[in-house]
Amino acid sequence: MATLSSSSPPGGLVQRVNGALRRVPIWPVYLLGALPPFWWLYLGLTGGLGVEPIEELEHRLGLLALQTFVGVLAVRPLRDLLGVNLLRFRRALGVLVFYYVACHLLVWLVLDVQILGQIWQDIVKRPYITVGMASFLMLVPLAATSNNLSVRRLGPLRWRRLHLLTYPAAVLGALHFVMLRKGWQFEPLIYLAIVLILLALRLRRRA
Amino acid sequence: MAGRWKNDLNWSDVTPEAAYLSRRSLMRGAGALAMATAASPALASLGAAPSAYSTDAEPNTWEEITSYNNFYEFGTGKEDPAQNAGQLTTDPWAVTIDGLVDKPGAYDFADIMSGVALEERIYRLRCVEAWSMVVPWVGFELADLLIRAGVQPGAKYIAFETLYRPEEMPGQRFPILEWPYVEGLRLDEAMHPLTILATGLYDRPMPNQNGAPLRLVVPWKYGFKSIKSIVRITATAEEPPTSWNRSAPHEYGFYANVNPTVDHPRWSQATERRIGGGLFSRRQETLMFNGYGDAVASLYDGMDLAQKF
Asked: What CATH number is given for B43-300 in this structure?
């Protein structure tokens, strides 16, 4: 039986990969994706996150959010360039990004800063926090409309337009990482570069 | 004389230095294992005398002090120095003392150590990143060494330089900062009795990740002023360049005195988190001059500390 999405030679590796992927259910992505914050919280409570567990937990959650975000952005180019189709999993990955960012924010609010007065000051006064907060706020409507009902209510055009917010949110998230490190460090710059490349690939497609 | 203790050891009982040193490097190699048992008897007790300058705050554990470090020569992660500093050769070690001094030269580490009285100084350490520790340093006053070197009247500042050896310091292979790391103090800050050159902690030789074999400790300034693994000390007439100031002048000043009222552009300095409190550790207020104001505030009389941060 012919597949509609096949753009690669019949019987090719890509097609077999896509065939296998189609049989993978989506719910395990949610289930496995939900675990890391709990696992790290447990480690933090039992001394498994080193001598400064608050910072370690905060950073691990932030980094996992950014890595998952890169995964979300890679889905489209992966299909366009290699023919590997992960579109079915993209919503789950996107929801996980929001989940990780929310956990990251919660650790920052509750465990790290602690002082209510300082939280607002930090958001306003510290550019890297302003940028991180802006990224989070952009993700809120995206997470809230990550269901079929919202797609139907908004209509595909408006829904897609709203979800263009993904792009600035990703850039700001990576920028937040670059800005918070002392000096110009490689790791965050690499993430920012990957995000920008993944976005640039979309521009090329449209041109 | 009755009851007087008589030594029945003679020189043939002394362990040859080479054997002793290789044994020490073996022990260092055993690293984490040996260090984890912090309660075990000291490997090589330095016999430092207690000091009135020590705080009576509870020191952080050996594990905390030696596993959470900023020492970018070994990587930017907090655990990188503990992981990568083992390869650093600290013996032989020479320190060049030059500039406006009467007795310039390259001095062997043993030379520098001969004749100094080691003291234990339990100091608060406040990092510019808003965390803190209490560390039982072992060392001697920098003033002792500067007096021996004979600082000339024209000198106004003391400059310091860290070892540059990228083959043993992997972080130096990346241009995160301009290497080698350099720091400096005004002469009166350098001569202050609180300012020490530390050669150990917990009465043991300094672990590499904490700046072996010789590092500066200036307890009323942010931690980055306390330069590690020093190979050069220079007396100068001009304010010397300092690494973080060169890298981000609007974020890190030459003075870098701990000051809760002058925020870092990217975070508040009003509070700090003492390492070791676990996941629910509360922040505490940061004290002016890290609590050493009585001893050092007069050094800055008439200075605008918000401008000279």
From this structure: 3.90.420.10
